[in-house]
Design brief:
Number of domains: 1
Mean pLDDT: 86
Strand content: 25-35%
Strand order of the largest sheet: 3-7-6-5
Low-confidence stretches: 2-22
Number of strands: 8
Helix content: 10-25%
Order of helices and strands: HEEEHEEEEE
Structural class: alpha+beta
Radius of gyration: 19 Å
Distance between the termini: 61 Å
């Protein structure tokens, strides 16, 4: 009988645990993530098929996390960057859709710095978490 009770308690604990994948990201300050690595994947952040996963929607910090990520970037030679949100685009599948449909939209930001020839599109996913790195061609803000 005790075995059945223990199995029942174990099943209850396991079934109530969260299955959402989160990655702990350190903050430099409330407005900036602390990045430590530059990606070597040329599609990371530049393709809707490989967006930067900042997460945060589950904590009502999705847009803030997008800005925290962008605030951590610098241009190729350490230049200060500027950015603006061009809009939402590109539906993708996500188990973290707050509405339960299983699909969410990415956000597209346009990024530039002094001396750049053009703006660069970066795709960001605020629903899912991943390991954050600076995209190829960017450096990390000091």
């Amino acid at each position: 009988m005790k075995t059945i009770v223990y199995i029942g308690i174990f099943a209850l604990v396991v079934s109530c645990s969260s299955t959402k994948r989160t990655v702990q990201t350190k903050l430099k300050n409330n407005q900036t993530f602390e990045l430590t690595e530059i990606s070597n994947d040329p599609t990371y952040g530049f393709s809707q098929n490989n967006p930067i996963q900042v997460g945060g929607v589950d904590k009502k910090e999705g847009p803030l996390n997008e800005r925290r990520f962008l605030n951590a970037l610098a241009g190729p030679n350490g230049e200060s960057i500027s950015y603006y949100r061009a809009g939402s685009c590109c539906p993708i599948e996500s188990k973290n859709d707050p509405f339960g449909f299983g699909a969410v939209m990415l956000d597209n930001y346009r990024v530039t710095w002094e001396g750049a020839r053009d703006t660069i599109s970066i795709y960001i996913n605020m629903y899912d978490y991943g390991t954050l790195k600076a995209p190829v061609g960017f450096t990390i803000k000091e």
